[in-house]
Design a protein that fits this description.
The complex is a heterotrimer of chains A (357), B (632) and C (208). With 357 residues, chain A is an alpha+beta fold. Chain A is 42% helix and 17% strand. In chain A, strands 3-2-1-5-8 form a five-stranded mixed β-sheet, with no helix packed on it. In chain A, strands 4-10-9-6-7 form a five-stranded mixed β-sheet. Chain A starts with a helix and ends with a helix. The chains are: A alpha+beta (357), B mainly alpha (632), C mainly alpha (208). The complex binds heme-A (2 copies), dinuclear copper ion (CUA) and copper (II) ion.
């Protein structure tokens, strides 16, 4: 209590000009910060029309918020430099300023204005990117632990939905994804499109995109979905209409075989399941199928000399035998139901044949 | 021996715990026998029931309920002999103690142990992520590591450590002899080790620890192995503890302020804890309920989240975030309070705009309940809900901005003492602003559509929780260390701690913004090789934070044991806790102080916050209990 | 929390060693700590119910499935009868409270005992209803939330009964007086809250 009894000594009052250098530093730092914020390569390639709006929004956010951050930073550093206690000032006190209504109004109003502007702008962007364009196609996205597959509208009206494990989109053709899951939550994210949505059990969530750039881009699962979450990836191919038709004609194959199917037909279907419908190639390396996945064991290496029955069990019930060095519960246990009977037989036969030698 | 076994304490707690497990075994087996379930003995059921009954029996054994049993059984309540109050040896910290100062230290030390454990898990996470590919732990362990990391740091560190610091200083600050309900206070503490040990024990559960993140989204959590229950039930204990403490704070603040301590003379730390406690009392029941739902789905086959039977998966997220968004303010507002104390004292100036500081806290509390769906922009919620939530979320920047700018104005023209508590306070100011700004960016729905669930979020989390909460915690611990222990800490080590932490922190979490934007999702054990370089840098920097924390621990332990004795008021502060000895006397005050002015009148000639009538009474022990404070 | 914290007794102390008591706390509010504590606790309780009602809202309104689940029925009448039981228990409790304030010990004992018995009857009828309902929580989400809400309420009745039984024991041992009846009042508030909550649950689950 003692200290407060006697009058507290003060520093001599500072002139207002003390503020000038602070302003100068802040201005320079702001300019630098904004330039830095604009030149850093923040984003992956822009591959749809939505990406453009979203990136612009981000750069606007940078331009608006860097000054706020720099302001705080400058005041702190400047105050520390200018007003720090110097030897001999141990018992000094600052001037007893309790507030300043004008300042307080300013720093309530200014952020409010900034926020209001940003919110309106963001709402406009949101409307824009979710606007329904003409000529939109629907692609179904099926998520399951831990693979993706995709359902395309039939090539001919009245035909069957085509299901494949690759995502092919036509450049400049707007698409609406309908995302489904057969087990837990997953997140369907295409970083190059800047969009994601969760796959929710019992619901079909969706978002729209219009691919604008040819190429292949990552599909990433963003919602923690279990052991294989980090490897639940796939690829989207943005292609020309011609390439798309070619894809549809090869992948649009039926999931049943005629009773009298020959060995080549079975092998073709097996390969098709392996590289496409079943998505095995995403996780397994198999030279014959040209896949190089590394999440599961290389089938070339581990299946040498293994009987067909072992392969079948490994697919139908992956946990029955877990290869050393690989985790259980990563390979989907659902192939016995998600593949048709013929497909399952075919892929077992195919894998057995190509790994036998 | 028998006497020791029967006396309340850890020993009795131990064998009561065993009895609790036995009870669970008997109960579940009996129920299953009666209802013809096979097999009668079902391990998971015993475990689940045991996770509730074991701890409850333990608490009984510990003596947490002795007084209440005594009361409930209808005997005359014995006159309080204060035998459970205060600490005379270190052993008194290991029993049910009703002294808010002892409880404050129990809380704080206990929480810091969990900072070390949770931080150690973060080190393992970073070790795994240092290089792409599964290098170090398998996917299951990895998911467990970050889930337990976050759960421990949130529920066993940040939330309780604030409660602990406030427990120690708040009654002193308002001139109260103790908290309103001292026994409830003791119980609140003892619920925490239960929650913490339970979460840690999950690593020994068959199938591994809980591994669905600290958010435990259904249906991943409802279909997970038994380890998930250690989270589901552990959180209930932590939640009960926070609710009980919050009740206690509210009642204490409302009914036990010293004469003259009007609401607008309260130190801002008290205001901050008042606001936080409101949040806790209103919001925490929601996480309790969300985990009840999960537990019921898991153990009794309920269908809250079973889409096939009409359950609603998104409902989990609504209920969870209706707590967990307010929870992020539960983890920040007390820190705001600490910063207000330190900035005023260390710049030797009154807090700029005291009233707006108090009102902005209340504004954050109110707004905090209206924004939960900003965690669900990409979750598939009704699309119309997003824009309203974007608006409310970004509005929170306004009251928070008022606080930031008022602190800056407090600094301006002060006499700034740049010691360790102040360094951490200033570090907080700058780093939290960055984290808050990335929060406002996340609030912008279209942007969030890209970065939600990426490392950009991980960066935001750590800028607000580490750069925000943890920096304020460090500041507060350094600031009140002399008061709590009666010793001074080593200033040089403190400065080393600050600078290594500050640099390590920015190098660790800064680049996460970038890799998140570029496409690295969160919660992955393995990632695309394009992110390898950044992740290596991040991991190396995170080890620097780890080492810097060891400096802190060393400083605290050695200073507590052998640091120079602290004066009663080494910072020349005005608030009441500094007007009593360091550490404070066992009953805080011999006679209550009378408050006659604001708490931050630095630089005002002759300013006084509280006066102690009859300082001469201070030394005498007799009669002080009946000293009537002025005003009655 | 139950009225133990700041009972005036704790300030009367025997003066030996350093076991002298703390200075009496200043009363900075007219509200009693125990009462305030209970009210705040009830806010928490309301929020717990709020969360269960949120689940109810999502299952019944957002999912939009028929209520109750097809092929099941909910016994509105039995529960209505039960509602009356619970409401009358509030009345008897009120009787007990006014009696002790007027110094009428018989009224206290009779009131509190009948409250206790009525509460037990309620719980018994509820359990009996569960047994005869014909659907289980695992059958459908509707069943889940039906049992969820009524079960949560039942758990609160159980807690309330535990508190009341303590009060009963103490009443019969001769505690409480016109000046000192907080031990009846505070658990009493809880019991009234449990009753009011039942009306809300009853309307939401049975009537609507
Ligand atoms: C201490 C904890 C804390 C705090 C204080 C905050 C504060 C804020 N948070 Fe954060 N948040 C978390 C902890 C916290 N958050 C966590 C843990 C998660 C992830 C959970 C998980 O999924 O695991 C999260 C996630 C999260 C999301 C969800 C992202 C997603 O999953 O997709 C969002 C989105 O809106 C968000 C926004 C905000 C905002 C707007 C604030 C605001 O309160 C910030 C306000 C502060 C400022 C803005 C700075 C100071 C103000 C000024 C200097 C004034 C001027 C400023 C402007 C004009 C911009 N947070
Ligand atoms: C207060 C909260 C808090 C704090 C302090 C921290 C601190 C740290 N966090 Fe954490 N973190 C979260 C809260 C916090 N975190 C949350 C909420 C999540 C989200 C989880 C989820 O997705 O569910 C998360 C997730 C998270 C991730 C993302 C995981 C993923 O998504 O895959 C990462 C990755 O780098 C990370 C790293 C770190 C690091 C390096 C630290 C460092 O600061 C740690 C510093 C180290 C120490 C303090 C310990 C030092 C001590 C020793 C080294 C020795 C100890 C010895 C013994 C005890 C014997 N955290
Ligand atoms: Cu699927 Cu993560
Ligand atoms: Cu939030």
């Amino acid at each position: 209590m003692e200290e407060q009894e006697h009058d507290t000594p003060h520093r001599p009052a500072q002139s207002r000009r003390a503020l000038l250098p602070a302003f100068a530093i802040a201005a320079v730092a702001t300019a630098g910060g904004i330039v830095l914020g604009l030149v850093i390569p923040w984003f992956p390639p822009q591959a749809d029309s939505q990406a453009q709006s979203i990136d612009t929004l981000y750069y606007v956010l940078i331009v608006v918020t860097v000054p706020v951050f720099v302001l705080v930073e400058t005041v702190v550093l400047y105050a520390v430099y200018k007003f720090r206690m110097r030897p001999g000032e141990e018992l000094l006190d600052g001037p007893p300023i309790h507030g300043n209504t004008r300042l307080e109004i300013i720093w309530t109003a200014a952020p409010s204005a900034i926020i209001a502007a940003l919110v309106v702008y963001a709402a406009v962007v949101l409307r824009h990117i979710e606007h329904k364009p003409r000529g939109e196609v629907q692609v179904q996205v099926y998520a399951q632990q831990f693979t993706w597959s995709f359902g395309y509208p039939p090539a001919t009206p009245g035909g069957k939905t085509v299901v494949a494990s690759d995502l092919y989109l036509v450049k400049d053709r707007p698409v609406r994804f309908r995302v489904h899951t057969s087990d837990v939550l997953h997140g369907f994210w295409i970083p190059a499109f800047r969009l994601q949505i969760d796959a929710v059990p019992g619901a079909a969530e969706s978002f729209r995109a219009t691919p604008t750039r040819l190429g292949t881009y990552d599909i990433v699962c963003t919602e923690l979905c279990g052991l294989g979450h980090s490897v639940m990836r796939s690829t989207v191919h943005v292609v020309t209409p011609a390439a798309y038709s070619a894809f549809m004609s090869t992948r649009g194959a039926a999931s049943t075989l005629p009773a009298a199917a020959g060995a080549t037909q079975v092998a073709a279907m097996g390969k098709q399941v392996f590289t496409s419908t079943g998505g095995c190639g995403a996780c397994h390396t198999l030279a014959a199928a040209g896949t190089t996945g590394t999440i599961g064991p290389s089938l070339d290496k581990y299946l040498k000399g293994k009987p067909e029955a072992f392969i079948r069990t490994s697919i139908v019930d992956p946990n029955a035998f877990v290869e050393k060095g690989y985790g259980a519960n990563i390979m989907p246990a659902s192939f016995s139901t998600s593949l048709s009977k013929d497909e399952l037989n075919a892929v077992v036969k195919y894998v057995a044949t190509v790994t036998a030698k | 021996m028998v006497a020791r076994l029967r006396a309340p304490g850890l020993l009795r707690g131990g064998w009561f715990f065993a009895m609790g497990i036995g009870f669970a075994y008997a109960l579940t087996t009996l129920i299953r026998y009666v209802s013809h379930y096979h097999p009668f003995v079902h391990g998971d059921s015993v475990l689940r029931v045991g996770m509730v009954s074991g701890p409850m029996f333990f608490l009984v054994g510990l003596g947490a309920f002795d007084y209440w049993f005594y009361w409930a059984s209808g005997r005359k309540t014995r006159p309080e002999d204060h035998s459970s109050h205060g600490a005379r040896s270190w052993k008194d910290y290991f029993r049910v103690n009703t002294d808010h100062k002892v409880i404050g230290i129990q809380y704080t030390v206990h929480s810091f142990i969990y900072l070390l454990i949770g931080g150690l898990f973060a080190m393992l996470v970073r070790a795994e992520l240092a290089q792409p590919g599964a290098k170090f732990v398998d996917a299951n362990t990895y998911n467990g590591l970050f889930s337990v990391h976050a759960s421990l740091l949130i529920f066993l560190f940040v939330i309780p450590v604030f409660a602990g610091l406030a427990n120690f200083v708040l009654p002193l600050m308002i001139g109260a002899p103790d908290m309103a309900f001292p026994r409830l206070n003791a119980l609140s503490f003892w619920l925490l080790p239960i929650a913490g040990l339970m979460m840690l024990a999950s690593f020994f559960a068959p199938g591994g620890s809980f591994a669905s993140g600290w958010t435990a989204y259904a249906p991943l959590s409802t279909s997970a192995p038994i380890g998930q229950d250690f989270f589901t039930i552990g959180v209930q204990f932590a939640g009960a503890s926070s609710i009980a403490t919050a009740l206690n704070f509210l009642v204490t603040i409302i009914t036990m302020r010293a004469p003259g301590m009007s609401f607008f003379r309260l130190p801002l730390l008290v205001w901050a804890n008042f606001s936080t406690s409101l949040l806790v009392v209103i919001a925490t029941p929601f996480i309790a309920a969300s985990q009840f739902f999960v537990l019921l789905d898991r153990s009794l086959g309920f269908n809250f989240f079973e889409a096939g039977k009409g359950g609603d998966v998104l409902m989990y997220q609504h209920v969870f975030w209706f707590y967990s968004h307010p929870a992020v303010y539960i983890m920040m507002l007390p820190g705001f309070g600490i910063i207000s104390e330190i900035l005023a004292v260390k710049s030797r100036k009154p807090i700029f705009g005291y009233r707006m500081m108090a009102f902005s806290l209340l504004a954050i509390v109110a707004l905090g309940f209206t924004v939960w769906a900003h965690h669900m922009f990409t979750a598939g919620v009704q699309t119309w809900i997003r824009v309203p939530m974007m608006i409310t979320t970004s509005i929170i920047a306004v009251p928070t901005g008022i606080k930031i700018f008022s602190w800056l104005a407090t600094l301006w023209r002060g006499v700034i003492h740049l010691d360790t508590p102040m360094l951490f306070a200033l570090g907080f100011l700058t780093m939290f602003t960055l984290g808050g700004i990335s929060g406002v960016m996340l609030a912008m729905v279209p942007f969030d559509l890209h970065v939600s669930k990426t490392y950009f979020i991980v960066a935001h989390i750590h800028y607000v929780l580490f750069g925000g909460s943890l920096f304020t915690i460090f500041a507060g611990v350094y600031y009140w260390f002399p008061k709590m222990t009666g010793r001074m800490f080593d200033e040089r080590l403190g400065k080393i701690h600050f600078w290594t932490t500050f640099v390590g922190f920015n190098v660790t979490f800064g680049p996460m913004h970038l890799i998140g934007l570029q496409g690295m999702p969160r919660r992955v054990a393995d990632y695309a090789t394009q992110f390898a370089t950044w992740n290596l840098i991040i991991s190396l920097a995170s080890f620097v934070i780890g080492l810097s924390t060891l400096v802190f621990v060393y400083n605290m332990v050695t200073s507590w044991r052998g640091g120079p004795r602290a004066a009663a008021n080494p910072w020349r502060a005005l608030t009441l806790e500094w007007q009593v000895s360091s550490p404070p006397p066992i009953f805080n005050f011999d006679a209550l102080p009378t408050v006659v002015g604001g708490p931050y009148e630095y630089g005002v000639p002759g300013a006084v916050h509280g006066v102690f009538r009859g300082a001469e009474v201070k030394t005498s022990s007799a009669g002080s209990g009946v000293a009537i404070p002025a005003g009655e | 929390m139950e009225a133990a914290g700041l009972a005036p007794e704790i300030h009367s102390h025997d003066d030996h060693g350093d076991h002298h008591g703390p200075p009496a706390a200043n009363r900075s509010s007219r509200v009693e700590p125990q009462l305030l504590g209970m009210l705040l606790f009830i806010i928490s309780e309301i929020m717990i119910f709020g969360a269960f009602f949120t689940a109810y809202f999502f299952i019944r309104v957002v999912q939009g499935d028929p209520w109750p689940a097809p092929g099941t029925s909910i016994p509105v009448l039995v529960a209505g009868f039960n509602t009356c039981i619970l409401l009358s228990s509030s009345a008897t409790l009120h009787w007990a409270e006014t009696s002790i304030k007027a110094g009428n010990r018989f009224g206290l004992k009779a009131g509190i005992l009948s409250t206790l018995l009525l509460g037990i009857t309620f719980l018994f009828v509820q359990i009996n209803e569960y047994v005869h309902l014909g659907f289980a929580p695992k059958d459908s989400a509707q069943g889940t939330i039906f049992y969820g809400l009524t079960g949560l309420h039942g758990a609160h009745v159980f807690v309330g009964l535990t508190l009341l039984s303590m009060v009963t024991v103490r009443s019969f041992k001769g505690h409480f007086s016109p000046e000192e009846h907080r031990g009846v009042e505070v658990p009493g508030i809880y019991w009234h809250f449990v009753d009011v909550m039942w009306i809300v649950v009853y309307f939401a689950v049975y009537i609507l």
